[in-house]
Amino acid sequence: PCAPNPARSGSRFRFQVPVETRVRLAVYDASGRRVARLFDGKARPGSHTVTWDGRDEDGRRTARGVYLYRLETGAGSISRKLVVVD
What per-residue string of b and e applies to 35-56 under the rule 16 or more CB within 10 Å gives b? Predict the structure, then answer.
């Protein structure tokens, strides 16, 4: 899950993996363009927290609006909506 959602200045993403696996976590705008790559690498078994400061890959503050975040692991992927309000 992502918290807080809606977000003002950033969010925390928490996920768990049962075994070491490659994990990708990214934020996309409504048209599907990647805004920020938050994690891309191997994750050890257990709980993980990744923080997003609300900035894009060039360091600019993202505009308010609806974004999607996608978490991909060796077991599959999930996508969820994230609302940025400030």
Answer: bbebbeeebeeeeeebebebee
Measured over the CA atoms of residue 60, residue 77, residue 5 and residue 31, the dihedral's sign is positive
Q: Using CA atoms, how far apart are residues 12 and 31, in angstroms rounded to an integer?
A: 23
Q: What is the pLDDT of residues 35-86, one digit of tens each?
A: 999 999 999 999 999 999 999 999 999 999 999 999 999 889 999 999 988 7
pTM of the model: 0.89
CA–CA separation, 29 and 15 (whole Å): 21
Distance of alpha carbon 44 from alpha carbon 18, whole angstroms:
8
